[in-house]
Design a protein that fits this description.
single chain; 127 residues; alpha+beta; GIY-YIG endonuclease; 4 helices
Length: 127
């Protein structure tokens, strides 16, 4: 006998930050930089004025993952390394949203990007 289980996942509402220039995320808050929350969530990076994303990721702590990993390179972040090596950073913008379910949201955002553009974001290896 096969056991069947139906799972209904409630809707998730994201409240995205404004698209913020890479350099502003890099700077310390005291120097006019941006304060990224110490909360779980998802983030996206793109070239300013373009819709296609360079990366879409998840984080148990957005500040650590976005500010210290992606932007500053103080903690490991493979997409961050490639973006810093290959992109003109003055043209990159980043946004983030808090969510208690970052893995589910990241998977959804990857699928939507693939549906819309035919592939995952440029610096994402897998979903």
């Amino acid at each position: 006998m096969v056991e069947e289980q139906r799972i209904e996942i409630p809707a998730i509402t994201l409240h995205w930050s404004a698209w913020t220039p890479w350099a502003q995320v890099f700077r310390l808050v005291a120097e006019g930089g941006t304060n990224v929350p110490n909360r779980p969530g998802v983030y996206e990076a793109r070239r300013a004025g373009e819709e296609e994303r360079l990366t879409i990721g998840k984080a148990s702590n957005l500040r650590r993952r976005v500010k210290r990993g992606l932007v500053r390179g103080q903690t490991p972040h493979s997409a961050g390394i490639r973006i810093r090596d290959k992109e003109p950073l003055e043209g990159i913008v980043i946004r983030w949203a808090e969510t208690a379910r970052p893995s589910a949201v990241e998977e959804y955002l990857h699928q939507e990007h693939k549906r819309r553009f035919g592939h995952l974001p440029g610096y994402v290896k897998h979903t």
